[in-house]
Amino acid sequence: MNLNDQKLQMIRDEKIPKVLIKLGVPTMVGMMVSALYSVVDAYFVGWLGTSQMGAVSIVFPIVQIIVGLGMTFGSGAASYISRLLGEENVDQANRTASTALFSSLVIGVVSIVISLCFLDNILVALGATETILPYAREYALIYISGAILNIINVTMNNIITAEGRAKLTMISMLIGGGLNVILDPLFIFPLGFGVRGAAIATVVSQAATTCLYLWFILSKKGYLRFSSRLFTFSGTIYGEVFKVGVPILVFQILTSAAMGLSNTAASVYGDSAVAAVGVVTRIMTLGTYVVFGYMKGFQPVAGYNYGAKNYDRLNEATKVSLKWATIFCATVALLIIIIPKQIISLFSENDRALIDIGVRALRANGIIFPLYGFQMVYMALFLAMGRGKEGGLLSISRQGLFFIPAILIMPHLFGLEGVIWAQPSADLLSVVLTAVLALGLNKKIKAFKEQIPWAEEMREEI
């Protein structure tokens, strides 16, 4: 296929705001729908009771790790593929795509088997109380058993986005998300499956998305080619994939650990506190996933133009993304600060303790959330440029480097308020770290643009 493919031409030549809308909006919608899976589950399961809702909250960190496995290979390959396409190296891009997909399948199966073998121990470690554990086990057994579908979907979502076909990822996610909204109440209530019904609905919905991706691969409608013959144990490919993918996996693992520690800290204050922390996490995930989804559209633009040494377009894409992400995050923050009670009450009208804790936690998170977009733009930019060290540091800072010490220390000092304010405190420190790294990166990009010899030599070492 000619490299003047329409999608690549768009990334290379169209006006930056237009190309970011075309790529960013579909992936943004897709990630929002992905976040809605857990929100919808929590919404309908909440009608069953506080302990049932708490069960879904306990399993959510496991979901994050499963998504992280797909992102390890998907995002890692996407970053490399974007640069390869910018350099017009199609053969290596095809080998990278196939190697990433088949590797994610193998790792996914192994992780699922291990998770099921130690399920109860994992659930207790994530904060399941005696009353929550039976429901968490029911939900997790079904969800984890079908998790390979989620891994395929996340991997393909990232790889296909790298070649500029963001609209397909949006359609596939909308189909799965829409089906989940329909099936959740059906399986939970009329069919009488209870909390298991939410898990069944999720797995069936993800299967629909997987079928669409399989059709895309088999019909060879995409620019990239997938085949077992293209799979290769290449040190170069795995090195490039893991350079970007491992920091994202670490980010997901730390996110899961953070959720587990939050659940454990909240469990001291009862099932209502666990459920409230889970609900707030899901609500904030809606906002963070929208930003993260947009960054998946921004990343191929940044990676392609960096690979092509088109620094003017790279700078413009970064500035536009910073502006849009900040406006969105400020809007979300304003909303959750002004009407937190109305939002939390959607998940529980009768549990006053849950509502009270949830309202306080939402407002606390809203204070610093306007700066979340700033963190994510620079994390995506570092990863798109293949700078895994800085991107990895930013990946682990928010939920690991700063949050884990905060959630371990602050509850002992401030009780439940410490649980509530741990995340905002970690976010503030992450913003400071991002600002320091961003200053250095901007200077280097300026040096690349001006073709300073030492800068170009350093660029080749990345």
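[next item in queue]
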Amino acid sequence: MNLDADSLRIIGILKDSFFPLLIAGLKFTIPVAVVSFALGSLLAMVTALARISKYKSLNLISGFYVWIIRGTPLLVQLFIIFFGLPAAGITIGAIPAGIIGFTLNVGAYNSEVIRAAILSIPKGQWEAASSIGMTHTQSLLRIILPQAARVSVPPLSNSFISLIKDTSLAAAITLPEMFQVAQQITATTYEPLILYCEVAFIYLIFCTILNIIQQKIEKKLERYVAM
């Protein structure tokens, strides 16, 4: 089948841009998402425990943090960190700014997942742990959190997959992830439609792989619970 000049040009652009986009995804998109999710999950755990704490000051501080982050757009948060803080004399690079923004966002949203998972554990579990001489901290670490972890795996996995897609917002603060690279290539090829579709396809590949991993983890957890 003979292809016209325009078709050959488009195929050439897709071929030439695929590996630069993929490399940007593997070099920046995935690492930024992994680091942000790991730090955000630690922050989420601390925030969730503060939210259910008996100390009102911790409840107020953690609740205020969650309220602010969940009530404002992620893009605005990134802009404040990267473009706003320099006005106060605090300059942060694109990658650290992206990680800080994503970490704060993940921490707020995942804290609600973890908090709900902890609260879903029957109070009888606390009472049983207390009856055998465990302290509150021991009950939390040995009995409650392991059960809550199994409950929270599916929503936390979905949160990570969403974070992979949200990293595209970091292009707005010049972080050189996939979408930023696509914008740079578009500026020279003038083919935004095919390049953005190609980026979407690569994101789809990443998310499909993560979905498969998520399903395998959930099946292992189901077998563990059934034992």
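[queue empty]
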